[in-house]
Amino acid sequence: MHSQISFIILAKISFIGDLFLLPKCFIFHKLEKRRVICILVATTTRQQLFYLTGEYSRKELLEIRLREKFFCPTCHAPLLLKIGEINIPHFAHKTLSDCQHFSEPESSLHLHGKLLLYQFFHQLNFKAELEKYLSEIRQRADLLIDERYAVEFQCSPLPVSQLLQRSKGYQQLSISPIWLKGLKEPCLEGIGLLHLKVHEVAMMQYAGQLPYILLFCPLDNRFYYYSNLFYVSSSRWVGKTKSLSATKQIFPFALPKPLSKEEFKRVIGIFYHVKKQYIHSQLYAGNRVGNLYCRLCYELRLDVTNVPDLFGIPLLGAECFKQPAVLWQLQVVEAHMRGVSIRRLIYSGRLALNDTKKEQQAITLAEDYIALYLKYKNDTIDNSNILDICYDIYCKNVRKLRK
Questions:
Q1: Does residue 249 register a pLDDT over 90?
Q2: Structure pTM?
Q3: How far apart are alpha carbons 39 and 79 in whole angstroms?
Q4: Residue 229 and residue 235: Cα distance in Å, rounded?
Q5: CB–CB of 95/18 below 8 Å?
């Protein structure tokens, strides 16, 4: 039995010049639940590439369809030129295809995003090649820019191993991969708690300063940034969300700015709330004797219900630790008091890392934190000076990343 198609009422898409305009009520949806490969580039019977980039009106495309046949540039299977009233014009394989050179089944979100990104680069006078197949590595880039950058507009979950493999393939050809996460709708902007999946974290970009995740929303034709990311635990991060209209974006893409002190104050507030939640969960976890948090507080002679503000502070790069900030910071201080090195604590398995390749980063971060703790442990810490202390550390770390 054929998989059912999800029907959603959509408004029609209109044209202005070469551009598709997306109405505000437009809702992106999967074209079909089964694997349907839809593309924007085809080969003609004369072995010429034919691009659906908004150059032709629907009326012109209907006339072209009557006299021309189209084929997949990769698997050479026959293609249908679909010109409906809901989705943008696109090519689709006539039969369910095993064409392997597309990273994901197409959705209307993916098609629209690639088209708008193509128009963005084209308007900036870059050489943009849509759905470019690179035979040397058997990969197809959503967009190849000046033969130097491979732009991947990722709209569905992707195994991290596959993401890293694709990036490595581009790098073998001296092409820089740039991953953009696709957004179905605009994001709320500002400082807040973000829930990031593993493959989204793997999309982080490093451009000489703060790591960030770049996103693109076709609905409002805007780029979004998740930047100044502080690891909380598991899939939770605290960060800043900021958007930039495609009409104001540049390439190479604009870089996010560091946080102001007022913005960092909100980060501190969220971490304080998360810390209180964690402590509450530990107090009601059952056996306190076997509870690591309670044992660490006992060893350090701290009140389990109200540990000092120096524990549980946000630090850049703390994603190397699996534990939440308050727990790993208690661990490294307690280990220091017993004369146990951070390396030994890691090797014992008591201080768990998210990535063993980041062992040295974890050691440096832990040692820096211990130095900070020893410097201020006897001082009276309140809401005002904990902000000053943490923001000073943040600014120093940003300066280090910029070098």
A1: yes
A2: 0.79
A3: 9
A4: 12
A5: no
Phi, psi angles (nearest 5°) of residue 256: -70, 155
Averaged pLDDT, 145-173: 96
pLDDT value at 330 more than 90: yes
Strand ranges (E), 5-48:
14-16, 19-21, 38-39, 41-44
Cβ proximity of 394 and 264 under 8 Å? yes
**71 and 78 in contact (C-beta within 8 Å)?**
yes
Q: How far apart are CA 195 and CA 239, in angstroms?
A: 10
**Distance in angstroms (rounded) separating the CA atoms of residues 293 and 302:** 11
What pLDDT does 270 receive?
A: 97
CA gap 402, 400 in Å, rounded: 5
Beta bridge partners of 233: 236
Amino acid residing at 125: N
> Burial letters for 208-217: b for 16+ Cβ neighbours within 10 Å, e otherwise?
ebbbbbbbbb
Contact 90, 112 (CB under 8 A): no
Q: Which residue has the tokens 């829930």?
A: 195
Q: What percent of the chain has pLDDT over 90?
A: 63
Average confidence (pLDDT) over 306-327? 95
**CA–CA–CA angle 191, 192, 195 (5° rounding):** 135
| Residues whose CB falls within 8 Å of the CB of residue 118, separated by 6 or more in sequence, listed in order | 53, 128, 130, 143
Q: What is the pLDDT of residues 208-222, one digit of tens each?
A: 568 899 999 999 999
